[in-house]
Amino acid sequence: VQLQASGGGLVQAGESLRLSCEASFNIFSSDKMGWYRQAPGKQRELVATITSPADTEYSDFVKGRFTISRDNAKNTVYLQMDSLKPEDTAVYYCNVHRLIISTFARDYWGQGTQVTVSS
Fold first, then answer.
1. Distance between CA atoms of 78 and 117, rounded to whole angstroms?
2. Contact, 27 vs 3, CB < 8 A?
3. What is the DSSP letter of 110?
4. Are strands 90-101 and 104-109 parallel, antiparallel or unpaired?
5. What is the pLDDT along the chain (119 residues), one digit of tens a residue?
6. Which of 26, 83, 108, 111 is deepest in the core (most CB within 10 A)?
7. What is the 3-state secondary structure (H, E, C) of 6-53?
8. CA-CA-CA-CA torsion for 20, 21, 22, 25, nearest 10 degrees?
């Protein structure tokens, strides 16, 4: 059981990157999928989550610049990152949050992919 993230790299400010994360297990339509990031010396923080195209959540610092999407048939979640800024530099982690029963959920994490934005 694993999540494989890819698409990170080194870009200049203003450029774009697209992250992908494929699960080795079947994704349910009810699973919440998301992206988090962690910069050096900082705590991991939420970037965006998606349950369905009509049910997405973005942190204020990426609204209007990043777009999250998913393809359940491919067990994959994407993060399109446009207008990148140096402060977006971090390791980006994908996540699958699965509700097992009403009082218990399980989280799956990818290994992380480095995004570096130069000024």
1. 19
2. no
3. B
4. antiparallel
5. 799 999 999 999 999 999 999 999 999 999 999 999 999 999 999 999 999 999 999 999 999 999 999 999 999 999 999 999 999 999 999 999 999 888 899 999 999 999 999 99
6. 108
7. ECCEEEECCCCEEEEEEECCCCCCCCEEEEEEECCCCCCEEEEEEEEC
8. -160
Which tokens hold the place of 2? 């694993």
Residues ≥6 apart with Cβ < 8 Å to 117: 10, 11, 12, 13, 15, 84, 85, 86, 87, 88, 89
What would the two tokens of residue 37 be? Answer: 């990031």
